[in-house]
Structures
1.
Amino acid sequence: MNEWTVAALALLAGLVPCGVVCLRGGPVDRLVGLELAGTVDTLVLLVLAQGYDRAIYFDLALALALLTFAGGLVFARFLERWI
Amino acid sequence: MSPLDLAEAALLVVGVGVTLFSCVGVLAMRDTYDRLHYTAPATTVAPVAIAAAVVLEERLSAAGIKAVLIALVLLVTNPVLTHATARAARIRQFGEWTVQEAEREGGPRP
């Protein structure tokens, strides 16, 4: 355990409120929870990559950041038009 | 502990603290728009602080540059995502994106 993995563990606790938001309220409220969970996950992967000291692991965080953006836009458009 | 380590630890604490605050804020708010406001700190302050901590440790090696790139991607894409979500919430609420008559200052137009 170094300082980076401790930070990752602390960040993981932030996923709990996001999960609770995803379980309550209207569809758009849940989407907000999902988006924030994606951001928190990106930060967790970023900190873990530094904690394990492998430069290649940073690509995971980058891919997750881009996919969260694309997925969020698709969900927003879908909620806007059809449901 | 060198001053550099202290600076890294401080930046990490700032990043993690802001993110946790943001998560609790999203949980505590009632309205969709209020929730959206609370996602902003986690997507602006936290990535910059954590990427700065990584750069302090790694200098501008491959890892440092990738961390900066990730922070930039989060900074650029998340406002767009927030706008799209707020737009979806508003369209679901009012049926259209434009300003409603009841919202105009001085009441509805004659």
2.
Amino acid sequence: MAIPTVLVVDDSPTVRKIVQMTLQREQIRVITAGDGLSALTSVADEMPALILLDIQLPRMDGYHICQIIRKNLQFRQIPIIMLSGKDGLFDKMRGRLAGSTEYLTKPFDSAELVQTVKKHLVDWEARMPPQHEGMRTRLRRRG
Amino acid sequence: MEQQQQDRIMDGDLQTLGLQSILKMLALSGKTGTLFVHSGPETLSICLRKGQIVALREDGVPHPDLLSMLCLLGKLDAARAQAIREATRGNPSLVLPILMDQGWMSPDEIQQRLEFAVTQSISHALRWVDGRFAFHRQLLPLETRMRPLDIDSVLLEALRQADEWEELGETSFTRTTVARWLPEVSKEVQNIRLSKEYIDVLCLSNGEQSLQGIALVLMTPEARIARLLEQLLTLRLIEVVDTALEGALLQDLSNIIIMSQHTLAQQGQSTSPEQHLLGLIKTMSTCINGLFIHHGKYARSLRGRGQLPVSEIVRYLERRFLHPLQLLARQHYPILETASFINGQLDCTDILTLDKLVRGDQLEEFYWEAVQGLAAFLRMVFSEVLRDEVGNSHTGRQLNTAWKYFLEEIDREVYEYQKYRAYKTTQAGHNHQVQQLGIVPNYGIQQSEGGQKGLPQTQRRSI
């Protein structure tokens, strides 16, 4: 069985490690990025099944990253869950307008995080674009 | 259902008639049928023909993966194991017959293994206090190649094994305990000169096989395996895995760290050094209290005892942490003497409301001392909590890494304040007037230069 890969983008190493630990226990492979540019590189290299994206990041903010991904035909299907400390309606709307799939407020509960991630990982293999057949095979081999 | 009722010869509870007596009675009268013994989620089905045991099945417990264990011991290769897996289609009772049919295990060894498995299961059931039994005329159609076993000799050995468990006394091991070797010991194992028995158990401690499974494959009583595991644990060659507990513990501690990291990030918008330090005090005291609440639930000596009175938890926490706090206060950070334990929580109200008593440099000095003291206490509390709850387990090591990252984030904030202090000290000679006017050099400079408040590195984002 193939293992899905989740990309965690957050400038706090603490948050990255906690999310990694939490998801790995659920048999999910986790890769991490500490800033916007590394995040985009990881998306292109690894084609994650889901992205957990912090909003305020060094160099490029989460809204901007989200917009770039949504404009790319190859990656636009990837679900993006935004992680933010702002829980106002305006912030949530902004996230949605940028193209996020879901919005989680910090501090998040790890059980809630797992539940949300799993919800968006249903049928993740089917969402992989055909041009990434090679990547899918690679993931199966890893699994 | 009606058929089943008619089929039943006798039934009752184990407190009235123990398993030993029931089996002896059935053996003496030479009965044929199936004896069902239930306790909690477990059920034992013993098939008897003319008073002898011909088959046995255990339900409600995970079936040991015999094939994997034989592979780990080098008694079966992976290809054969895979072939058997495909042939049995997940039915564990077919494994031994196939091994015999293929000639990969001798009929004598098969008989020995089947006998051992029957004895082990009956020995376990002999220790049940609560439960029910029922004897039915019908024989269950169980696949077995076992030669009939004499009940008396099985009982004798089963009772001996049950006694061994009793002799173990208070042990944290159960037959479902799973152990795994510690990764960092691989180089040292050769130097310890372990006997073959220990090495076999160590080989099977891969974090997947239960104590019961290890006993079964090695044909060694469970109590003996428990002793060997205890010894390996003492030698720090293995760790015990309690998946459910570790999962719950990891989740709870992760939430505390995430919450504390969030508080730390939020407090970064402080406009003055006092505010910055106050934010750190709030973050750390909240984190300490979170850890106390967590430890009240998961401390080794408190868990598994159901709902405990709050007073007992409070007493435990005070016994564990009050003295180190007092020691820190006496030896290094006197400001911590104003912090007290109330209902198992660290009360820092006096420190947090210091601004009502003092102002300016003196307030900053008090806050600074409190930050250093709480940082030291926080480190101590976390390492104690982790050591007690999970020790040097995989979960423990993972949590330690996450914790290290969080402490680094706190240290970065503390370091930024230290830089500001150093700057203030060097400027003290030159900027008496600035100081007297209450203008904070570094924090003020940042505000005008970057259009933002706070030190460059302490500038935490508000997300």
